[in-house]
Specification:
With 130 residues, this protein is α+β, with helices and mostly antiparallel strands. The chain has one domain: Acetylglutamate kinase-like (Carbamate kinase, 3-Layer(aba) Sandwich). Helices cover 55% and strands 14% of the residues. The protein has a two-stranded parallel ribbon. A two-stranded antiparallel ribbon has the order 3-4. The longest helix has 27 residues. The mean pLDDT is 87.
Length: 130
């Protein structure tokens, strides 16, 4: 038990120095489908409970590529950048919209099943530019 008390005492300066700070966390598209993703969500909720404001940004490349392949659309690339025509844009919108809803659902569902049950977590999502 002593190790846990020491760990908590040693971490308290970091908790205090990061309270009310904003962390931008990038979640790759592969990470959202990883079996460990539930634990990542619990860690994010824990950071929130420690007073950290979170901005989550997620990637979607594997999901977009899967939708393109499912619809038989060959991705076009020029100098390493994907060219998004109207057919590809439908796949992008589908993939990103699905992932956004799934991420928001995990944030709310995993709260009830975590030690953070009862924590007040507010989620706002959109295409924000500041």
């Amino acid at each position: 038990m002593h190790d846990y008390v020491t760990w908590l005492r040693d971490s308290s300066p970091y908790i205090n120095s990061h309270r009310e700070r904003t962390f931008v966390v990038m979640l790759p598209g592969d990470g959202l489908e990883h079996p460990n993703f539930g634990n990542i969500v619990h860690d994010l909720v824990l950071l929130h409970s420690l007073g950290v404001r979170l901005v989550l940004v997620f990637g979607s490349r594997p999901q977009i590529e899967a939708r393109l392949a499912a619809r038989g659309i060959e991705p076009r690339v020029h100098r390493g950048l994907r060219i998004t025509d109207s057919a590809a844009l439908e796949c992008v919108i589908d993939a990103v919209g699905h992932m956004r809803i799934a991420l928001e659902a995990r944030l709310s569902m995993d709260m009830a099943a975590s030690p953070m049950q009862g924590a007040r977590l507010r989620v706002a999502s959109g295409n924000f530019v500041t």
